[in-house]
Amino acid sequence: MQPIMPPPPACRALLATALGLAGRHRLPCHRAPLAARLSSGAGGEVEAAGSGEAGGVLRHLLLKLRATGPVTVAEYMREALTNPGQGYYTRRGGVGEDFITSPEISQIFGELIGIWYISEWMAMGKQNAFQLVELGPGMGTLTGDILRVFNQLASLLSKCDVSIHLVEVSPKLSAIQAEMLTGGKVQSNPENKSAYMKGISKTGIPIYWYRDIQDVPQGYSFYLAHEFLDALPIHKFQRTEKGWHEVLVDIDPEVPDQLRFVLSPSRTPATENFIQPEETRDHVEVCPEAGVLIQRLACRIEKDGGAALIADYGHDGTKTDTFRGFRNHKLHDVLKAPGTADLTADVDFSYLRKMAEGRTATLGPIKQREFLKNMGIDLRLQVLLQHSRNSATHEQLLHSFDMLMNPKKMGDCFHFFALLPHHRVVRPTKKDNPQSKSPLPPVAGFGELSLK
User: Fold this and answer.
1) I need a surface site. Which of 241, 257, 305, 405 has the fewest CB within 10 A?
2) What backbone phi and psi angles, to 5 degrees, belong to 392?
3) What is Dmax (Cα atoms) for the chain?
4) Looking at residue 225, what is its pLDDT?
5) Angle at which helices 391-405 and 377-386 cross, to 10°
6) What's the rounded Cα separation, in Å, for the pair 206 and 216?
7) At what angle do helices 377-386 and 107-123 cross, to 10 degrees?
8) DSSP type of residue 6
9) Taking a C-beta distance cutoff of 8 angstroms, is the pair 74, 232 a contact?
10) How many CB atoms lie within 10 A of CB 102?
């Protein structure tokens, strides 16, 4: 295999400047094993919750199913994850309890994401203002690491008006994010009616919280969705001798307080709308909400400029049954005790590409280890190792690097995908712009970048 080349000069310069962060380590958090979270399918050791933990979501679903009959997997996921009273995300939050994400593993991850955004801001002409919009910010760790890079490169951003916009539905998580990013100095119900909370970061950048991407103001923006799309509701379909049928959730007649999967007796509206004639797989998962989100992001980028970076585990239209649950860092039966476990499915990047509808250019998916390698993770690790003060920190840095980059861990499971304006990756024709002669700067992180 050919070695992956270092980042282009502009990105290398950013890296060199950002290395002023050398002696600053985030304190490592306690981390539970990640083996279950990294599983690429639904197999493996499964933990099922006891019947006493069923809770309000199951009771609500049982009443609903008895009254109206089977529901789609998408509707089941929506109830289990975001039910206003007992949903997994609205009630518990989840991060650190049932799964750990890349930003929690190493500060390097977020730092390199921050450099990517500044690199693209520079490549697109250094606009005098931009919004950084993160969807599902978790504990706020990733945004915090990005803000640290922005602060380190403050001289570069001195003439740019930067603001942070977080889309978060969980009251618990938004409170954690506010404490981490602002020290808890936030204002609820501000004058900006679309945002339900606002504050100022510890480095002086305004931060706003919203419940929906449509509430975020229009304008030149960079979007970030890290492990966000995988938790959006999916529809599942099965090919049979009689054609395609949708997989539904119903009450198990042999165990009335438990659930089971069934096939729809005939084609459903979702079957008509989401199964493509050329489909060759026998089992398909489609996430319409992810498609709608990509359409909205593509429309915003086409109109206002900017870019979107999506990082998640997924595939390019090749996998079939990936629906699974996680509880206490172990695989969990998806139909047991809804509301007590994280439910997730791999992102189909080929579907996202299609849903962009040509409004933007798309790059990827590219494996996480390749993206981070292109972004200079090896250089950043060496600097942190040189400044590590003890053997424990040294070992923790190496362990974190291995978790992010090892193909058998996160390196090959997670992928990066980007939406960019067409003019960012394709030079206008001479007829459109006869003065344009210089080559376009490569997009950092994607592909093997040369040093021309």
Assistant:
1) 241
2) -65, -45
3) 74
4) 98
5) 170
6) 14
7) 130
8) P
9) no
10) 22
